[in-house]
């Protein structure tokens, strides 16, 4: 398998509880390497743009408000089959359905406040990485 990149967000529910290091450790222990990371507070424009794919869904407004509610940590992760590896360590979107030892099972408060976001495909990873990072910010 090839070394690839994926995108990750440590969400406001996790940064509020000071879990950035614990989440990052789980990602690194799963064989992913952080090659770019920054703590930001999403603007409305960023949150609406990033989650535009969900614009017609009833939860869109709440999602945008949640993602603006506190700092987030956006990261570029690198590893063998990075998208799959990241999704495996994140666990199911609903923490009640997530496997033991996954980030969401360990830390998520609810299906909405589920600690992390991760790209769902290599194509989306590139789009999401480019949304938040310039190439010179990624230092692998």
TrEMBL record:
Transmembrane segments: none annotated. It is an enzyme of class 2 (transferase). Residues 3-140 form the Nucleoside diphosphate kinase-like domain. GO terms for cellular component: cytoplasm. The active site is at 117 (pros-phosphohistidine intermediate). InterPro entries: NDK-like_dom (IPR034907), NDK-like_dom_sf (IPR036850), Nucleoside_diP_kinase (IPR001564). Keywords: ATP-binding, Cytoplasm, Kinase, Magnesium, Metal-binding, Nucleotide metabolism, Nucleotide-binding, Phosphoprotein, Transferase. It catalyses: a 2'-deoxyribonucleoside 5'-diphosphate + ATP = a 2'-deoxyribonucleoside 5'-triphosphate + ADP; a ribonucleoside 5'-diphosphate + ATP = a ribonucleoside 5'-triphosphate + ADP. One of its GO terms (molecular function) is nucleoside diphosphate kinase activity. Signal peptide: none annotated. One of its GO terms (biological process) is GTP biosynthetic process. SMART domains: NDK (SM00562). ATP binds at residues 11, 59, 87, 93, 104, 114. It holds the Pfam family NDK. It is found in: Cytoplasm. NCBIfam families: PRK00668.1 (NF001908). Belongs to the NDK family. Major role in the synthesis of nucleoside triphosphates other than ATP. The ATP gamma phosphate is transferred to the NDP beta phosphate via a ping-pong mechanism, using a phosphorylated active-site intermediate. Homotetramer. This is Nucleoside diphosphate kinase. It comes from Pelagerythrobacter marensis.
